[in-house]
Automatic annotation (TrEMBL):
Assigned keywords, A-Z: Amino-acid biosynthesis, Arginine biosynthesis, Transferase
Gene source species: Segatella cerevisiae
UniProt-recorded name of the protein: N-succinylornithine carbamoyltransferase
Encoding gene (name): argF'
Pathway: Amino-acid biosynthesis; L-arginine biosynthesis
Keyword Amino-acid biosynthesis assigned: yes
Amino acid sequence: MKTFFNVEDIGNLDQALAEAKEIKQNRFGFQKLGKNKTLLMVFFNNSLRTRLSTQKAALNLGMNVIVLDVNAGAWKLETRRGVIMDGDKSEHLLEAIPVMGCYCDLIGVRSFAGLKDRDYDYAETIVNQFVQYSGKPVFAMETATVHPLQAFADLITIEEHKKSKRPKVVMSWAPHCRALPQAVPDSFAQWMNAADVDFVITQPKGYELDPKFVGNAKVEYDQKKALEGADFVYAKNWSCPGVTNPADYGKILNKDMNWTIDKQHMSWTNDGYFMHCLPVRRGLIVTDDVIESDHSLVIPEAANREISAEVVLKKLLESL
Ligand code: CP
């Protein structure tokens, strides 16, 4: 595996899940692979889980780790070509990336969507430059359109808790006070479509995700209907993906609190589990009683971020 952005990159999904199970039981069993290898984690945006879990996974594998917070101590980076750099940006990404590549064996990048220019975001302009110019394997730690380490951890969590062979998994949009990117729902949809689950997306009109991520998923605009019989409820906010109206890209079109997942919503499910990638805004996405209930999987999901990261780093190390 030379890059990790999409579900296809991991190869056979059943084998990847089996590997995750093995690593969870023996997370220090592959330390020889990472000896004298260095992971560089580059953050253009904030993080708690991704930062800690990926670093922990690398340490489990015997790697050295360097963390660079681009907006806290590094030179401000220009990302566009053809500009006269007479503003506050001292270095161009096109020099910075190959320099970063000199100091490491693997690079993880977190670079969120700007939500201003759909074409720029959906072309994955920043991370593709890392792939092109770093000379090193690159993996997503949440990019403009994907967050595969999260989706893989979510799938591991569903595998661990499912009560039937093919559970019903419902991803429900929920309200938020800020415009959020689509990376988490995009990846979750992509991975659920590849997994052996009955996958449904429910959202208000106007929030249709990019068709390349929706794939064959069932889209149900009636949230109650969607949640009926659900084994897993994956709540998430996302801003308008601009599919039906590109001018609305990145906007908040709806703040309807009837979409907040509360006890009544969970009562429509098949005694279902509540899931969210975190961080989560209580009172908007989910009520206190639901996230604190014994059917909330938010902490096991976060714990499995260490496992998904370790599987991915192991596969990248094996390909060096
Ligand atoms: N779920 C997730 O990626 O969390 P962080 O943004 O804290 O890394």
